[in-house]
Write a structure and sequence with these properties.
CATH architecture of the largest domain in chain B: 2-Layer Sandwich
Radius of gyration of chain B: 22 Å
Cofactor (chain A): thiamine diphosphate; Mg(2+)
CATH class of the largest domain in chain B: Alpha Beta
Strand content of chain A: 15-25%
Number of domains of chain A: 3
Catalytic activity (chain A): 2 pyruvate + H(+) = (2S)-2-acetolactate + CO2
CATH topology of the largest domain in chain A: Rossmann fold
CATH superfamily of the largest domain in chain A: Thiamin diphosphate (ThDP)-binding fold, Pyr/PP domains
Number of strands of chain A: 20
Number of helices of chain B: 5
CATH architecture of the largest domain in chain A: 3-Layer(aba) Sandwich
Bound molecules: thiamine diphosphate
Structural class of chain A: alpha/beta
Largest sheet of chain A: 6 strands, parallel
Largest sheet of chain B: 5 strands, antiparallel
Keywords (chain A): Amino-acid biosynthesis, Branched-chain amino acid biosynthesis, FAD, Flavoprotein, Magnesium, Metal-binding, Thiamine pyrophosphate, Transferase
CATH class of the largest domain in chain A: Alpha Beta
Strand order of the largest sheet of chain A: 3-2-4-5-7-6
CATH topology of the largest domain in chain B: Alpha-Beta Plaits
Enzyme class (chain A): transferase
Low-confidence stretches of chain B: 1-13
GO molecular function, one term (chain A): acetolactate synthase activity
Distance between the termini of chain B: 43 Å
Structural class of chain B: alpha+beta
Number of domains of chain B: 2
Oligomer: heterodimer
Helix content of chain B: 25-40%
Mean pLDDT of chain A: 95
Chain lengths: ~575, ~190
């Protein structure tokens, strides 16, 4: 059937099951918008900035596991997407970005609103395409979805010149089989090498002090059941990265919570002293390892990851297993069960778990309470309570992000949505909106910093426009808090350009947008406003919490330092020698 | 796990960074828009300079072979190879550095040959090196020479005293050796 390129775009997106497009129109993409309008079956969310569209598509993808779609026009529309594309790349989020481009005959001519977005995004996409012939359009779009969601997921960009969207063609939408065979060089491994899996099973059985180190890959694979089974079966404590939160229930007795720069004392001590580290869908990020030479210095390492390039990138591992985390864990458990699931050194394992209990008691996650000034950690705890631990949490970047990671307890995958790899301020609000659109049955809380919020706060009106009832808690310290913390700790309190005390009245801002606003300035008001906010279900609510301005995120391992240099919750520097278990 | 034999865990993992040398990487790629840029971007993104690069079509339609020379840390190059493998347009990627392989390079060298003695000498050297004189003028010979990097370097050294006016070298092309035993191949055994 002959139809316009623009109609082919919509037809292909429908074929891919796309429900929502987050975007912002303009000249070069107008035909597609027209086709969208005429067709009427895909919902479009008009964001107020393309960056917002990108992060919303990410939030949607992270919360649902489906592919997100963000769309913009050429030139400035496309460049406004760049931060979100880079963000999706760093966190392996499956998003298809569709950009309009100037007509084919003007490409390379510095035409109005022309930018080489394929060139710009080459290093920050899993793959990208410039469509040069209308006959290729449906195949390229289908390839884009296939590449975005398979293997290690990631963003794929499709740049479509305006004339291609206007041309007429009767090209068919290719089948998935045709898509696969059109990509001979692309073969994601999912199964895992049986020999290596055997070896891993053996190492786990004979380890005395093992630790599971779980990252975002386990969230992507939704491997919670397998992780719990493995941990319980072999009595292995589990620490998760920031991206891995929710992959393992944090209320579980074997949970060590987060490790790394702002990890718990007990997670970091366990990793420092373990003799076997089982990395699952984690990439040994420098925020996790600190000084590489002193990361798990005694341990053999098993690394399960779908991405072969992630293995032995930062740390050389002993047993690499390339495959889908869920599939490999399943096989690993089978292998262990086949062998009778016996530990070689049960007493040692028992002692290890007892040692970990001691560490948990010695330095639990905590903070100094106050009844005069609102402690940010207290706000997070109260959010956890009023939402009964069941909300999806999206955050900006900074101290509030870390407090949200530490003081909310996560129990299911895709529950904690934040910018882990790129660390993008301004991620929280749009990502939270995208998450709520994808998971309307869930309460979605955006826990944001005043600085981060102001980077994409125009999306508040988008949430009002589409009646997306997200809750936004601004942890308002009047500072670029995380930078201030570093300046306090490492730059003798020279607070260079971090003061945000001149700021809008966020409650009025919310009201001006047609949302609901509340403010809390005293600890006694926190619970009250949260309960009020929970009653509102038809529009966004913004909560402005005026918190202790100079509170710090602790514990902390200073950048590039060893776990032994951890600054503890009471501000004491270094880990006392007598608590060092095995390595002096 | 009764029949599981104990595996000794290494006391300390070796962090193998640090050996820097020239690597020669060969790629079979789909001849798609931007593939060269994609590969170059990936390598440049690691902070490495590409020392040599050659591309040409293969006998299979739509497929090209690339040979890349890059100086870098063994561990990082291993990363680069893995990442190159991940690219959608690459069919095969191999680091040939430690694998028996054949490499060849082509150079065009324009030598100043104004005197009869210079013409004699350059002609003789060209014959010894099994090169070819492909252009002649009143005062120059342009020599075409193929071979390994060393051979071409040696030739250049020898003709340098006459004066090199201009020169162009292709990057290397390389293929893995098959183990069928030619005379040369015995050397690798
Ligand atoms: C787009 C962007 N610019 C700059 C930074 C550097 N940065 C990291 S945290 C931070 C401060 C964040 O302040 P705020 O959002 O108020 O959160 P707080 O730390 O106060 O909780 C800054 C500036 C960043 N991560 N992202």
């Amino acid at each position: 059937m002959a139809r316009k390129g623009a109609d082919i775009v919509i037809e292909t997106l429908k074929e891919e099951g796309v429900e929502y497009i987050f975007g912002h129109p303009g000249g070069a993409i107008m035909e597609v918008y027209d086709a969208l309008y005429r067709d009427g079956s895909i919902k479009h969310i008009l964001t107020r900035h393309e960056q917002g569209a990108g992060h919303m598509a990410e939030g949607y993808a992270k919360a649902t596991g489906k592919v997100g779609v963000a769309m913009s026009t050429s030139g400035p529309g496309a460049t406004n997407l760049v931060t979100a594309i880079a963000d999706a790349y760093m966190d392996s989020v499956p998003v298809v970005f569709i950009t309009g481009q100037v007509p084919t005959h003007l490409i390379g001519n510095d035409a109005f609103q022309e930018v080489d977005i394929v060139g710009i995004t080459r290093p920050i996409t899993k793959h990208n395409f410039l469509v040069k012939r209308i006959e290729d359009l449906p195949m390229i779009l289908r390839q884009a979805f296939y590449i975005a969601k398979t293997g290690r997921p990631g963003p794929v960009l499709v740049d479509i010149p305006k004339d291609i969207t206007q041309k007429i063609s009767d090209v068919e939408i290719p089948s998935l089989e045709e898509v696969k065979s059109s990509l001979p060089g692309y073969k994601p491994h999912t199964e895992g090498n049986p020999q290596q899996i055997k070896k891993a099973a053996r190492l786990i059985a004979e380890a005395k002090r093992p630790v599971l180190y779980v990252g975002g890959g386990a969230v992507q694979a939704e491997a919670q059941k397998e992780l719990v089974e493995l941990a319980e079966l072999m009595k292995v404590p589990v620490t998760t990265t920031n991206m891995g939160k929710g992959a393992f229930p944090e209320s579980h007795p074997l949970a060590l919570h987060m490790l790394g720069m702002h990890g718990t004392y007990y997670a970091n001590m366990a990793v420092y002293n373990c003799d076997l580290l089982i990395a699952v869908g984690a990439r040994f990020d420098d925020r996790v390892t600190g000084k590489v030479e002193e990361f798990a210095p005694q341990a053999s390492i098993i690394h399960i990851d779908i991405d072969p390039a992630s293995i032995s990138k930062n740390i050389v591992v002993d047993v690499p297993i390339v495959g889908d985390v869920k599939v490999v864990l399943r096989k690993l458990i089978e292998e262990i069960k086949k062998e009778g699931a016996k530990l070689l050194y049960p007493e040692e394992r028992q002692k290890w778990l007892e040692q970990i209990e001691k560490w948990k008691k010695l330095h639990p996650l905590t903070y100094r309470k106050s009844d005069k000034v609102i402690k940010p950690q207290y706000v997070i705890e109260e959010i956890w309570k009023v939402t009964k631990g069941d909300a999806i949490i999206a955050t900006g970047v900074g101290q509030h992000q870390m407090w949200a990671a530490m003081f909310y307890r996560y129990s299911f995958p895709r529950q904690f949505i934040n910018s882990g790899g790129l660390g993008t301020m301004g991620f929280g609000l749009p990502a939270g909106i995208g998450a709520k659109i994808g998971r309307p049955e869930k309460e979605v809380f955006v826990i944001d910093g005043d600085g981060s919020f102001m980077m994409t706060m125009q999306e508040l009106i988008t949430a009002v426009h589409y009646r997306v009832p997200v809750k936004i808690a601004i942890i308002n310290n009047g500072y670029l808090g995380m930078v201030r913390q570093w300046q306090e700790l490492f730059y003798e309190k020279r607070y260079a350009e971090v003061d945000l005390s001149i700021q809008p009245d966020f409650v009025k801002l919310a009201e001006a947008c047609g949302a609901v606003g509340f403010r809390a300035e005293k600890p006694s008001e926190v619970r009250e406003v949260l309960e009020e906010a929970m009653k509102v279900q038809d529009k966004p609510v913004l909560l402005d919490f005026h918190v202790d301005r100079e509170e710090n995120v602790l514990p902390m391992v200073p950048a590039g330092k060893s776990y032994r240099d951890m600054i503890l919750e009471d501000g004491k520097k270094g880990v006392e020698a007598d608590t060092m278990y095995l390595v002096g | 796990m009764s029949d599981i034999t104990a595996v000794k865990a290494p006391a300390l993992r070796e962090i193998k960074k640090g050996r820097v040398r020239k690597h020669i990487i060969t790629l079979l790629v789909r001849n798609e828009l931007g593939v060269l840029a994609r590969i170059a971007t990936l390598i440049a993104g690691k902070g490495y300079n590409i020392e040599g690069l050659s591309v040409g079509e293969t006998h299979e339609k739509g497929l090209s072979r690339m040979t890349i020379e890059v100086i870098g840390d063994d561990v990082v190059i291993d990363q680069v190879v893995k990442q190159l493998r991940k690219l959608i347009d690459t069919i095969k990627v191999r680091d040939l550095t430690d694998i028996p392989h054949i490499e060849r390079e082509l150079a065009l060298i324009k030598v100043h040959t104004a005197t009869p003695r210079a013409r004699d000498e350059v002609l003789r050297l060209t014959e010894i090196f099994r090169g070819k004189i492909v252009d002649v003028s009143q005062s120059t010979y342009t020599v075409e020479i193929t071979g390994t990097e060393d051979k071409i370097n040696a030739f250049i050294e020898l003709v340098k005293p006459f004066g090199i006016m201009e020169m162009a070298r292709t990057g290397k092309v390389a293929l893995k050796r098959e183990m069928a035993s030619t005379e040369e191949e015995q050397l690798w055994k």
